[in-house]
Amino acid sequence: MIIVLKRGTSEAQVQKINERLNEEGFKVHLSQGVEKIIVGAIGDRSRLEALDLEAIPWVEKVVPILAPYKLVSREFQSENTIIKIGEHEIGGEEIHVMAGPCSVESRSQILETAHAVKEAGATFLRGGAFKPRTSPYAFQGLEEEGLKLLAEAREETGLLVVTEVVDVRDVELVAHYTDILQIGARNMQNFILLKEVAKTNRPVLLKRGPSATLEEWMMAAEYIMDGGNYQVMFCERGIRTFENYTRNTLDLSMVPALHSLSHLPVIVDPSHGTGRWNLVPSMAKAAVAAGADGIIVEVHPNPEKAVSDGKQSLTVPNFTTMMDELKKLADALGRPVKGAR
Amino acid sequence: MIIVLKRGTSEAQVQKINERLNEEGFKVHLSQGVEKIIVGAIGDRSRLEALDLEAIPWVEKVVPILAPYKLVSREFQSENTIIKIGEHEIGGEEIHVMAGPCSVESRSQILETAHAVKEAGATFLRGGAFKPRTSPYAFQGLEEEGLKLLAEAREETGLLVVTEVVDVRDVELVAHYTDILQIGARNMQNFILLKEVAKTNRPVLLKRGPSATLEEWMMAAEYIMDGGNYQVMFCERGIRTFENYTRNTLDLSMVPALHSLSHLPVIVDPSHGTGRWNLVPSMAKAAVAAGADGIIVEVHPNPEKAVSDGKQSLTVPNFTTMMDELKKLADALGRPVKGAR
Amino acid sequence: MIIVLKRGTSEAQVQKINERLNEEGFKVHLSQGVEKIIVGAIGDRSRLEALDLEAIPWVEKVVPILAPYKLVSREFQSENTIIKIGEHEIGGEEIHVMAGPCSVESRSQILETAHAVKEAGATFLRGGAFKPRTSPYAFQGLEEEGLKLLAEAREETGLLVVTEVVDVRDVELVAHYTDILQIGARNMQNFILLKEVAKTNRPVLLKRGPSATLEEWMMAAEYIMDGGNYQVMFCERGIRTFENYTRNTLDLSMVPALHSLSHLPVIVDPSHGTGRWNLVPSMAKAAVAAGADGIIVEVHPNPEKAVSDGKQSLTVPNFTTMMDELKKLADALGRPVKGAR
Amino acid sequence: MIIVLKRGTSEAQVQKINERLNEEGFKVHLSQGVEKIIVGAIGDRSRLEALDLEAIPWVEKVVPILAPYKLVSREFQSENTIIKIGEHEIGGEEIHVMAGPCSVESRSQILETAHAVKEAGATFLRGGAFKPRTSPYAFQGLEEEGLKLLAEAREETGLLVVTEVVDVRDVELVAHYTDILQIGARNMQNFILLKEVAKTNRPVLLKRGPSATLEEWMMAAEYIMDGGNYQVMFCERGIRTFENYTRNTLDLSMVPALHSLSHLPVIVDPSHGTGRWNLVPSMAKAAVAAGADGIIVEVHPNPEKAVSDGKQSLTVPNFTTMMDELKKLADALGRPVKGAR
Q: What pTM, to 2 d.p., does this model score?
């Protein structure tokens, strides 16, 4: 940690900082620059968080040297984490496509979609049973009934299931039915929920919060790993910016950035990332070209009758075309799209 | 609702939209512009959410006419909501100052702070017992012990208490100890938690999420009111922008905007809004000048030893000076700062 | 244009709006909804800009129906604009790679780079002679000397040249030396400069402003086309957001969005878009997968000695590797990378 | 400057950095932390800009210690800059109100407005003669004719004039007619224009760019001061964020932040800052409470007939009421509103 002192800091004031750092077990190096005094503090990373030196009036700024995350870091584990689910591996060579409706609406809707996306080459079925909705008057999901329908669709098609959990009291229930637990964007910093999914043995798909920095996102993953669950994958789904032609701004640079900083797999959600179905295929291809380990997309047999997110859902024919293009692209990059025709 | 169709939409396609709207019980007006066809749909506001007409390929855009919120709206209730807590009224003429440390750290710390802020003119004591922290390695709060210390401080000083609840399973516990339940910024769209605090009879301080629009924030309040708890106050605490000299960008325009659109009180938090103690007094004054019904600020007897947020905490002398200035300012605006000397 | 009136607007007030619209030559349709009155105004798009109906107290909001741009729109011209420069075509099947240093620093630097990027498959040489720099103390470019060095490099290698113009008084000079005139991000809304480059017969590379919406960007292109120069290409180079791990947030969704709304070519700049050389190759591939007509990247023979932007510059070997990967990818998409080995 | 090296950097690599820094005249301190090597470089601030050490692969990050600005800094000049214009002083005790229409539209309009705002207590007349407009089809200003009308209004009322210059070729012309040269938000980083206004002896009102950080804004002022013109005042007018209920997000925290970092005066523009006339009076008061040295607001005798920005313009009666409230508020803060009744 580097502490820059304000111009005109007195000897006595420097001494006080020195003492405070020594008290906390840090070794201190002083360095007198042309205009400012700089204090270097060396010590245990875990104690840094507790120090709030910028509260001292003669401290200009504090610059952390070490990243605040540890378990998620590639410095901690240099090889990629590969998450094995059934016969699938996420984070290795294979690219996986997770597809399905925003919400589970009915038995026929989810089964029809499951069969269609399976045929087109998806390996996972997505679908929300518990829906966090901006409005209290909007459809809130079929809840346990929805989970059962997802399980039935898995039974029928062999697709594995990814679905969101929103309530700490439901973690066990949802974990019972699903293969991957999804933490939604709005819950990325719901630390209570992170601690709870950390206690399960289910892989976790951790969506990025709409205003989360890369570091905060990695810290959210750190919560889950620190709680004992090492099977975490990141999911970039767009951030909130001033541009509102798209629903969010899909930040694909995070794909190579995460791969460089962390060993965990990275999935991309171009449906929420753009909010417009006609942009989804291009951005799915871009995600794979950027190095994503998988994509998650919304597909609905009848988007204009969807109870949520129809605007960003692909029809089955559009999804099928996209899968064919993805396969060609992935082949050129030397990665197989698992399940693709 | 207005639906704009793409250029070149056929008669048959227009007809399909017509039918879909009639099916859902809407009355339809067609209007042929110079270049585009516009469809006006009139009907029950509650059914609008379910329609996802932008999923139809020949729809260019859908423009909602009615606001999605109802109970929070000044159109629903034209007079200000005044929240009575003990002998205090929030949302009326009185301006209230809520002050205290970021976290409850110890008995002596919270009691010392409580006495000091009481003396300077605060009416509410703030302090976190459950802390949502970005890092799993950071101090997470004293939990129930912290709540008891807050209650003891109330007993001793007569200050009322505002503290955050982060876990649905703790709502009852926290409500037992506190006078105002705080929903933190990161939980503004934790709808599960909103529904739970809606079931209590405690007033709720609803912080704005760092990337929440005005409308989303009002919808979060709508969740609480829809759940039966009408005692909601908004708390502006800054949004996340590209500017990072300040921790957040304090969006004071929300104060007059909320007062124009809603009947609920508005509180401002200049501590989180700026993240720098030396900017807090100016922004507290600005908040009151903008029409805020109260402010909530961090005060610590010894900021450089605080376990969290020391950088943005006022010392007791600085807080006292600020209170004197606030009082003068509020007097000029014809509003009393309740409790001020 | 749709005008929504506030609840409680009187007959006389509605009448006033009616009159104002008639005065300006608009036909008016009134529509009485359940809660609000809606006024539809039909008429000449060019007069809309002059009306400022939201200034009327009983107007709640005004919703434009028609896009404010015309010449850049795909509704105006349905086939792609293909810009022919020498033997190259931008906006057709070919993908072009523009490469070179941030700044022209010396004869040897620009010639060495030009030969290297030509060999690796670039068709255009980029390099700044006039540099807009945040600090007045930073290197401001070699100016005309730099332009001459670029011209010499073109002579030697056959590469065409793209370089930025920052001063209206230099437009003629820069146009004399360059094949493409670049409008930098900070000048995207320097309308005076846009009008000046519109008078030249040089193709224009229009970078997106760091806080420009898609619509504002298209309107900037409209300025150039309205001034008589139809050879405009967009260049996405990232927007400013809260995320600062990357220098900007590269908004690749704009590629398919622009292709859907406009007939003009789209180039992507992953160097400024990320600000980190190690992310550039992944994002260049992603750009091509998203449908970009070309990319522009910074290459420096010795990045750690570059006078500007070394952090985001590729070395020649890294650029060469990237080109090989781009070629494979583009092949899979059925598009040739013009010039690639 | 602090340079943090990546874990695993070799002795030879450290040596290379050492040499590069020595070459450039820096003294070097090495510091071996628990996990990383840190290099401190001490030397001439003006050479720092030229070094681009982050381009070196084994450099993790570079942390500048000194601010990049100098002349604008309070470290350079500790007392406030007071700009004297006629009998007025900006930056001292007096608060100044600059008021007038967005655009000069006609002789009668500007004279009527000038008399009205003078009577209500304004000391400066604002009004645009050259208008930077998003659309090429929008009204672009009366140009020199507009400047003459402003001069006539000054003659008649005694108000001083502030107006925008957008073209380097017009700087002399505009400076001839105006008392303060305004640099508009979109031109904040038009460095060519900054250098040109630096050559005049007119005070400059430097608006903040919609996506400019505090530091970039200060650097823009540094350009003007470095060019020889020390009479610069900052003007906060809102930044672009995701919130679009307001036209911009007025970032009032910049007022105390600038006052702490710089000696230059700070003006606030609540009209562009909010884009809604009904929020303007509250935010004008908030600006003064935050410590602003003046405000600049749009006033139009007939906002619904304004050719631009009517939506955010105050009527004369609303402006007069606001002035009365401002005066009371400023009195309470011990500052006179110059010119107020």
A: 0.95
